[in-house]
Automatic annotation (TrEMBL):
Gene Ontology biological-process annotations: carbohydrate metabolic process; glycosaminoglycan metabolic process
A Pfam family that the UniProt record links to this protein: Glyco_hydro_20
InterPro entries: Beta_hexosaminidase_sua/sub, GH, Glyco_hydro_20_cat, Hex-like_dom2, HEX_bac_N
Native organism taxonomy: Bacteria, Bacillati, Actinomycetota, Actinomycetes, Pseudonocardiales
Gene Ontology terms: cellular component: membrane
Protein name per UniProt: beta-N-acetylhexosaminidase
Active site: 265 (proton donor)
Family as reported in the entry's similarity comment: Belongs to the glycosyl hydrolase 20 family.
Amino acid sequence: MFDTLLPRPVSVTPLPGSCPWPSPVDVRPADLPAEGYRLEIDPGGIRLFAADAAGESHGRQTLRQLVGPDAFRAASIHSGLSVPCGVVEDHPRFAWRGCLLDVARHFRTKAEVLRFVDLLAAHKLNVLNLHLTDDQGWRFDVPRFPRLTSVGGWRPSSMTGSGGAQDGRPHGGFYTGDDLREIVAYAAARAITVVPEIDIPGHARAALAAYPALGTSSSYEVWTSWGISTSLLSPTKSTLDFFRAVFDHLLEIFPSPVIALGGDETPGATGEHREFVRLLAEHLLARGRTPMGWDEVLDVPDLPPMVIGSWQNEAAGLRAAEAGHDVVMCPEQHVYLDHRQSAHPDEPIPVGWVHTLEDVYAYEPALTEPRLRGVQAQVWSEHLDSVRRVDYMAFPRLSAFAEAAWSSGPRDYAEFLPRLRDHHLPRLDALGVEYRPLDGPLPWQTRPGVPGRPR
Ligand code: ACM
């Protein structure tokens, strides 16, 4: 059983016998690396030594895997379960093991986000980078600026795939402050930090539609297309004050030490736009938080120390580290889970490059500590209009990513694959995750006739 664990632990020592399940778990503090745990299972009971609350959470996840797929069901359906005896010692390779979830392009309900948090926890991932705002939707209620959600929170139609056709179907939704506080608390109880993102000065058309005075035109519409919009926030004093207030409200809800402000894909940006980004970064710093931006912000003069999400390529992350920033590696060449999973034409709405399960498993960041905080997979949702579509794109690639983020030492896909196929996929089945089968989509997972934009 111990050779089925995912992500693979630092060390395991199987011992003879088993312990009945459920049994009480005796949790004790221990001097172990951050997030580390040691499980000692013998016929008489289970001891869980934990470095911290995260270590306890991870140890409990390992225990669940040792019990078997049934332990991942919402209710117990069998009796006579047991856990094999042995010792597991474990701690993560990277401090930041993240996944971005884009709830702006396609809204995910609160219940769906909570479920996603459970799935991250089951994989010992510890950062949910929640992309709350974009051209196509604003999902974060700010009571002082109600039009952000009443206008910016929905759109009358969405582009179907990448071909330009519209579906003519309204789409929307947003989270109240209390919804988000609930998500944050639920995640924290599972050792996950929710890092919120408000994207400025591009990817902001929903905000412009709500308050056109933030821009240069008299009216804007929440975008119903995908792509890179040329509409940017106007980098004026009043726009700055507006977004300082928006971020201040964000800080009241999200205790995360890192707060993301976007900064990506700003065609036509001027020095004033770059200064606007710098001033908002300084604003977050002055309030005791570390700003995070996508690697485009490296072009901003006099940028304070930030966390840089290196998405355009690995070289951007190296450049960020040289400039004194911390880096989260999330390059689109490797860990963009909205990109297609094979070159087969049956892949639904195929966009981006082919990132197979094996490719994702092999991902190795070019940077090392101390500047490297960790790695992050990204689930952009332009073409993921339901939670079933998110499941399909995220899993099982996110399972492979989780092991690359957690486990040190060489990775051998031939060793990983049977562990995933024979032991981890049944866990996902028990959780009700509609992952992509290893040999391709099920008929209802295809999207015949909907064009993508493969690269
Ligand atoms: C990004 O993919 N624009 C960060």
